[in-house]
Amino acid sequence: MTKQYKTLGEFIIENQDSFKYSSGELSRLLNGLRLAAKVVNHEVNKAGLVDILGEAGDQNIQGENQQKLDVLANEKFIQTLKKREIVCGIASEEEDDFISINSFDNQHQNKYVVLIDPLDGSSNIDVNVSVGTIFSIYRRVTPVGTPVTIEDFLQPGVNQIAAGYIIYGTSTMLVYTTGDGVNGFTLNPALGTFYLSHPNMSFPENGNIYSVNEGNYVHFPQGVKDYIKYCQKEEDDRPYTSRYIGSLVSDFHRNMIKGGIYMYPKSSVASEGKLRLLYECNPMAFIAEQANGLASDGKNRIMEVKPTELHQRVPFFCGSRNMVEKAEEFMKNANA
User: Which segments constitute the Fructose-1-6-bisphosphatase class I N-terminal domain (predicted)?
Assistant: First the structure.
């Protein structure tokens, strides 16, 4: 007998009690995201056949060359979210400033802000390696009926009401949380429908994979160097396996399934770290904590960091609980 899988829409309706606001609002938010994801997935899958590979000739606010697919993904997510009559503002890693969105009645009635990395790992596009989209959703803090302001976006991660990612790989998956566990949905490309394929996703408490760009080893703080050597030492259940794709979504997804730690520390060439607090670290931290993992800047819980600017960067350590705690221990000892 063929197993019947729930669709994403069915799952949202059946689990509406886990979202403390209107289930209709969550449905509209996720519908906008999944529609854009399907469009981007289509473009990713034909990237080698049409002229969307390579660089677009511009740089984003981070000073990074924008890939053509970066620009396309950014446009598609902004377009679909604008039409949902639910979002009052969008902040994108690809945009210099946030985008204010008025409600159709011009009374600023929309209640949610979305922060998004439209195409994470985009440097991998040209070599056919998995890329992804990361999103984070907050309730606005300014009064409904007024234009959205920067304060609506500069909220700590603990205020997130939903977060997730889409991974464009051998299959396309949407993984998200509303604060009541983590669930993954796989796209059936023939039907254009996401089906629940990975219910109740969870990090193993221990893992044997460490993910870090070891090419930057010489630039890392001593505590990180010490932890990497610990991972490589032949003792007990070690050495661990080193696996690093260079796409946060892909590395995180593998580690959540198999057990591991992802690290992007600060360094002598990136004193604040490289990953963005609002577009990458906070949403991934929310997912990790809801999946029995931890996320830290090396000392403090990521989701308690108070943002000071839209494109703020922080060090990031995320993954299996015991591995993150051990990494923090090495960093604390190195600074003692």
Answer: 6-199
